[in-house]
Write a structure and sequence with these properties.
262 residues; alpha+beta; 11 helices
C-alpha cells in the first residue's frame, strides 16, 4: 500500500471534515462492482447517519441502497485512472446536497472529502456555481489542511472560512500550533481588512505565526499593492479573478517548502 493509513488517521480521526477512503472492488472484466470503506472518520459517519464501525470494512452497496450513480462513477474513475474530481449533487440516502472531492491515493484507492451544501433541490444553477466556487475559492478567506501521503503532497480544500479579518485572526489564534497549513487572505473585508489581519497573525506569540503561508487575494495588482501585501507579512499576492491552477501551484509551493523546513 503506497499511502500510509497512520498518516490519514493522524490528520482525520479528530477532524471536523467528513473524510473516507474508498477501495474499489473490480470484477473479472475489470469493471468496478462495489466499494469498501477502507477508512471513515467520525465526521463522515455523522454526516451519513452511520457509525464508524458500521462503515469501516463494509461494502458501499450493502449499506446504501439509494445511492447517487454519477457520484460513484466519478469516484470509481478517479480510483482507477488517477487524478482528482469534484461533484455536487443530491444524496437521496441522507437527504442532503453533498459536494464531494475525490483524489486517487493509489490504484483502486480513492480519498473522498464530503461537505454538506446548503442549497435547495430545484436550483441546479446554484449547485453548479457552488461547485465552481469550492474549486476556485474566489473572494473568500479559506484555511487549508494538508497531508503528506504516499510521497505526494496533496491539499484538502475548504475546512474553515471566515467572513472578515477579525474572525480570521480569532480562528487562527484559537487553533493548535501548526493546525493551519496556509491562509488565503482577501484584502478588502469588513471590520478588519486583510492587511491588518495578516499583521495581527504575524505578531502573535506562537511558532506558526511566523511560518504559516499567507496569500493575498485582491483585485488590486499594482506594484504598490504587492509591496503593501509583503510589508504586512504575506508570502504572495494573487490578483483577481483568481486562476485556479496558479492558486493551487502557489499553495503547493509554499506548503511543501514549509514542510521541508520542518
Amino acid at each position: 500500500m503506497g499511502f500510509k493509513i497512520e498518516e490519514i488517521r493522524r490528520i482525520y480521526d479528530n477532524s471536523p471534515v467528513a473524510f473516507c477512503v474508498m477501495q474499489a472492488i473490480t470484477g473479472q472484466t475489470a469493471n468496478i462492482e462495489d466499494f469498501v470503506f477502507h477508512y471513515a472518520n467520525a465526521a463522515l459517519a455523522a454526516l451519513v447517519g452511520r457509525s464508524v464501525d458500521e462503515l469501516t470494512g463494509h461494502t458501499f452497496y450493502s449499506i446504501f441502497k439509494e445511492h447517487n450513480e454519477k457520484r460513484l462513477r466519478i469516484c470509481g474513475d478517479v480510483a482507477q485512472n488517477g487524478g482528482s474530481n469534484t461533484y455536487t449533487g443530491y444524496s437521496a440516502e441522507i437527504k442532503k446536497y453533498i459536494c464531494s472531492q475525490f483524489y486517487q491515493l493509489e490504484a483502486l484507492y480513492c480519498g473522498c472529502l464530503l461537505i454538506d451544501v446548503p442549497v435547495p433541490q430545484e436550483t441546479q444553477e446554484q449547485i453548479e456555481q457552488y461547485t465552481q466556487d469550492i474549486s476556485a475559492l474566489h473572494n473568500q478567506l479559506a484555511l487549508y489542511r494538508s497531508s503528506h501521503i504516499g510521497g505526494v503532497y496533496s491539499v484538502r480544500i475548504l475546512v474553515q472560512h471566515a467572513e472578515n479579518g477579525q474572525v480570521a485572526v480569532s480562528l487562527f489564534g484559537a487553533s493548535a500550533n501548526n493546525y493551519f497549513d496556509a491562509i488565503l487572505m482577501d484584502i478588502r473585508m469588513p471590520q478588519m481588512d486583510g492587511l491588518t489581519a495578516a499583521r495581527a497573525i504575524r505578531a502573535m506569540d506562537r511558532p506558526d505565526a511566523k511560518s504559516v503561508p499567507i496569500l493575498a487575494m485582491t483585485a488590486n495588482a499594482f506594484d504598490e499593492d504587492v509591496e503593501k501585501s509583503k510589508a504586512a507579512g504575506m508570502n504572495a499576492h494573487l490578483a483577481k479573478p483568481i486562476e485556479p491552477q496558479q492558486l493551487y501551484q502557489t499553495l503547493s509551493d509554499f506548503i511543501c517548502e514549509r514542510a521541508q523546513r520542518g
